[in-house]
Write a structure and sequence with these properties.
The complex is a heterodimer. By secondary structure, chain A is an alpha/beta fold. Chain A has a single domain, classed as Rossmann fold, CATH 3.40.50.300. Chain A has nine helices and nine strands. Chain A has a six-stranded mixed sheet, sandwiched between helices. A three-stranded antiparallel sheet of chain A has the order 2-1-4, with helices on one face. In chain A, α6 links the parallel β6 and β7. In chain A, α5 runs parallel beside α6. The longest helix of chain A is centred in the middle third of the chain and has 13 residues. The radius of gyration of chain A is 18 Å and the shape is globular. Chain B folds into two domains: 127 residues; 137 residues, no CATH class. In chain B, 81% of the residues lie in helices and 0% in strands. Chain B is globular and about 60 Å long. Classes of the chains: A alpha/beta, B mainly alpha. At the A-B interface, α2 and α3 of A face α1 and α3 of B.
């Protein structure tokens, strides 16, 4: 039996009196692109942080390749946070050297190729780049790793529609069949065509976990339409 | 992995601390060449007095600035948005802490050495009668000025470890607050500083050779062999030992928080 790339069992996270995640159970298999969808405050980022070991669960378990978050899981998880998390004073080629230094599965060649495609000069300091270009650089660094699990938190939020296509193509072209991409975004219509599966989170609980084909065939709706229906205010 | 982390931490601190220390050395050389070398120390001019006060303030600023830069770097690298990168590279909490401690410690010791060297460069001029000052010091204290500086340096090297760990433990403990974590860290630092003073005072006074007993003995003139110099050295050893214990305790607490209680906001 193939080990699931991600597993959560009774996972909960409490902040003070507020539960951001409540008794979450889910399993993700390899070789798929999964949309993690939900309104603001539904627990998406909390779940992502727990998978990356940036938060300690209040109760329950989270595992990647059957291992609790730690050094071994960090080697195989490639994570793009939803904010500018890189040192602004560093030049892009310094960042590439940094990633190559710390991640054995990082390909500097792949990163330079993608930068060339997007006409981004690696000699530039990060602080001199526009918000959209910074996001592209961050995505390039993350997708230049040969990881088992890519976790992308709002990867297309700050870029123009033309660049979105390039980014989505980058995601599709740069993950292997054995890898899984977990993608969190509000721009459902833009990513719907590349998703294999979607998970809807509401109030820290999983309310839907289905393939895109199931949604289309059984409910006769697009993911975007179903999302608007489920989360109507 | 520790080597790679150290390389990055050293590089990041180097950016700020090298220019800061280079500026102080340049000022010390300037002061020596153009002010203290040719000054009349028996009748100091207002310019000399102002420059000495100014240079002392610069040294204090350099040392405070170094501590601040190390503490801010620790916070930013691990607990601000940059923590999203630091905590997702394949390194353990122990490796992160060891790297930050070594990098920060080396800089604090270097800072102390540069401050001493700059002061020496600034003040060790032929017109100041250092041999007379040294002789009268030896006569009063029972040991040479050189011995005093050596002991002071030893204590400073140990205190650097305690100093750096007190910043780190306060910042790490600040992360246990749900909101206003920087303010939390400052509060923890103030409380810790108060507790450390109590701890050092206890360490100074307890035991048969404690400072309190020595003072009592001296006041009673029951033991004329105990000089102020001996008391001073005993006091320094106790401070050094207490600092080392504090530093180790702070290190363990910081490691526990980073390893078991990480909750990046």
């Amino acid at each position: 039996m193939v080990t699931p790339v991600l597993e959560c069992q009774g996972l909960s996270k409490q902040y003070g009196n507020f539960y951001a995640l409540t008794n979450l159970n889910l399993t993700l298999d390899r070789g798929q692109i999964v949309g993690l969808l939900g309104p603001n405050g539904s627990g998406k980022t909390t779940l992502i942080k727990l998978i990356n070991g940036l938060l300690v669960p209040t109760s329950g378990l989270v595992s990647v390749n059957n291992l609790k978050p730690g050094i071994e899981t960090k080697k195989v998880v490639s994570y793009l946070p939803d904010q500018d998390y890189l040192n602004e004073w560093m030049k892009i080629h310094d960042l590439i050297a940094y990633f190559a230094d710390f991640y054995d599965n990082f390909s500097a060649e792949k990163a330079y190729d993608m930068l060339r495609d997007l006409n981004i000069d690696p000699a530039h300091q990060l602080r001199t780049l526009s918000k959209g270009t910074k996001e592209k650089v961050q995505l390039i660094l993350v997708m230049s790793r040969d990881a088992d699990l890519y976790i992308l938190d709002e990867p297309i939020g700050g870029v123009d529609p033309a660049s979105r296509d390039y980014i989505l193509r980058t995601i599709i072209n740069n993950y292997s069949e054995e890898a899984t991409v977990l993608l969190s975004t509000h721009l459902i219509a833009d990513i719907e065509n590349i998703l294999d599966r979607v998970m809807f989170l509401r109030g820290g609980q999983l309310v839907l976990n289905a393939t895109v084909d199931e949604i289309r065939m059984e409910q006769g709706k697009s993911v975007d339409s179903l999302f608007r229906e489920v989360f109507r205010c | 992995m520790l080597g790679k982390l150290l390389k990055q931490d050293a590089k990041a601190l180097y950016r700020y601390l090298v220019p800061l220390h280079a500026a102080v050395v340049v000022l010390a050389v300037f002061g020596r060449l153009f002010i203290t070398q040719s000054a009349d120390w028996s009748d100091p001019s207002p310019l000399l007095i102002i420059y000495i006060i100014g240079f002392t303030l610069i040294l204090v600023t350099m040392m405070t600035g170094t501590s601040l830069i190390i503490a801010v770097y620790f916070y930013r690298n691990l607990f601000s948005k940059h923590g999203y990168l630091s905590w997702t590279i394949p390194a353990s909490a122990g490796q992160h802490l060891a790297s930050k401690t070594i990098a920060g410690y080396i800089w604090l010791v270097l800072d102390y050495m540069i401050a001493m060297a700059a002061a020496a460069l600034f003040l060790a001029v032929p017109s100041i009668p250092w041999s007379e000052i040294s002789d009268s010091y030896s006569e009063e204290m029972g040991f040479s000025l050189f011995t005093f500086l050596l002991i002071l340096s030893g204590i400073a090297v140990v205190s650097c470890f305690c100093g750096i760990m007190s910043y780190y433990v306060a910042i790490a403990a600040g992360q246990l607050f749900s909101n206003h974590r920087v303010l939390g860290a400052v509060i923890v630092y103030c409380v810790l500083t108060f507790l450390v003073q109590i701890f050092v005072s206890i360490a100074l006074f307890i035991g048969p050779n404690g400072f309190g007993f020595v003072i009592t003995d001296t006041l009673n003139a029951s033991d004329q062999n105990i000089t102020w110099g001996v008391q001073y050295i005993q006091m320094m050893w106790r401070i050094g030992f207490a600092s080392l214990i504090e530093g180790i305790i702070f290190y363990v607490i910081t490691y526990y928080i980073m390893n078991k209680r990480l909750n990046l906001s």
